[in-house]
Amino acid sequence: MLEMAEYLVTAATVIVLFGVATCFAAVTQRQGAKVETRSRALVAVGDGPAEAVAAGGGASPQRRSSLGWWATAFQIAAVVLLTAYIVVRMTYTGHGPFSNQHEFAIAFAWGILLVNLFFDVRYRIRLISLIVLLVTGGMLVYAMSLDTSVKPLIPALQNSLMLTLHVSFAVVAYGAACVSFGAAVLYLLQPSIRRVKLPRLEVLDDIGYRAAVITFPLLTIMIVLGSVWANTAWGRYWGWDPKETAALVTWLVYGAFLHVRVVRDWRGRKAAWMLVLGFITVLFAYFGNHIFGGLHSYA
Fold first, then answer.
1. Same domain for 124 and 266?
2. Closest CA to 190 of 145, 138, 125
3. Which helix (H) or strand (E) holds 138?
4. Are the C-beta atoms of 222 and 246 separated by less than 8 Å?
5. Which of 39, 94, 252, 255 has the highest Cβ tally under 10 A?
């Protein structure tokens, strides 16, 4: 059964890479179509050579639509496969597959895909999906490099309900943070990239904000549940463990972003940089305990 679970992860990784390629193709063909449209406009007013459009270099609307459909379909397939992995692994172990770095990396990738799928269907901005899928693919490749064996749960994790709830809120919050990161990166790149037409700044700003609105309350619930669980497992609600501290810093960054956005209507590049910083703190919260140790060094 464990072997089946790893096959599911491998298949999901391959499909995510197909999704990356499809998003890239959709973006480049869309840009090619825009170049052709501009060339035809020049010919129409007599300001450009007819040869500029003779070859018909842009992709047809039907083909661009097909590529977009496949980009979304690959994401759906990856979510289904990773959900199947979670079910299979949970069936085998008797608890949520969130007890070690391998399992949590896959859950992290699942959360990223799930949230991005929502924004992908709503906004259809393949460049954001391209960035998010690259992060997801990296996380899955990292997960596949780790030990996949099942070991007995340490005493602190022997609360299946709290383990499942705490980590579930974490992975969805981190997934939303990754989407806001993708939107923020495109916002910051907008002035310097000429060859590819990026989405309007207002749209990118809105996506970053909406994803952060998902991130912050879920982080809040994650921290509260973690504190309750810590009191049960270790006899204290808060101990400034490196992972606890990193989670608090992440919560403060997203809280500060939402505060200045709502109170001062903070937008633009400074707001985008805050979202980039927020995702950096997410990654530090995920990987930092392996550098600094602490009670969370198992995860």
1. no
2. 125
3. helix 126-144
4. no
5. 39
